[in-house]
Amino acid sequence: MQRSNGNFALAFHCLVIGFILSPLFIIILVAFTPENTLSIPTSDFSLRWFKAFFAHSDLPTSFFNSVKLASAAAVLATCIAVPAAIAISRYEFPGRNFVNGLFLSPIIIPSLVLGIALLRLFSAVGGTGNFGWLILAHTIVATPYTLRLILAAMVGYDKSIENAAYSLGANSWTVFRRIILPIILPGIAGGFLLAFINSFDEVTMTIFVTSPSTVTLPVRMYMYATDSIDPLMAAVATLNIAFTAVVMGLIDRIYGMEKLLVGKG
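Now predict its structure.
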């Protein structure tokens, strides 16, 4: 009976995973079509639309804009979230709940409202069209995700380990580097990846604060899709999937995904 239930559970999980991944497989298949319409190739496969991606100079430029923007926003969000999470989780101070709510507020504010507000702010200070201000906008959006994961990693933190290190003569930097950081590293890594993904994928808010020289790939795809419908966007999506798979594979090869996200050696 247990074996039967185990086989049924395995089949059910395979069906669920297949259902989740099926849109990706369809997009990948459509990217190799030789036709001018969104269709799954049945006989011939073509690299036509991948060549069109590289021939379309705006798309590679927008891709690198997105990578630079998401990387910078994720780094800044992590640098903000680490000390904020340590302070919120370990110390009691006036306005603690307010600070926590302030950091998490971008999650509950609609992207449309946030985009209009940031547009008004950047226009008032003369920051419209500047890549640095765009990084700031994405940092605001990405920080709550990083903060939540680092706060979760701080749950159950045993401060007696830290006190033992101080009693043995360790300074604050050594305690942070050798004790606190390894404990919260899975939260930091997960928060960084989640911040990167949210920044890279952000469209609604970015439309309001971007400029022709700082257009990101999702915005460029949106602009292109409003004018024409062809398999080029499927090719772009396939390249994004391949890029993500390569990055995840390199991280797993060099450091180990389980060690990075779960904390196991």
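The domain at 57-261 is CATH 1.10.3720.10 (MetI-like fold).
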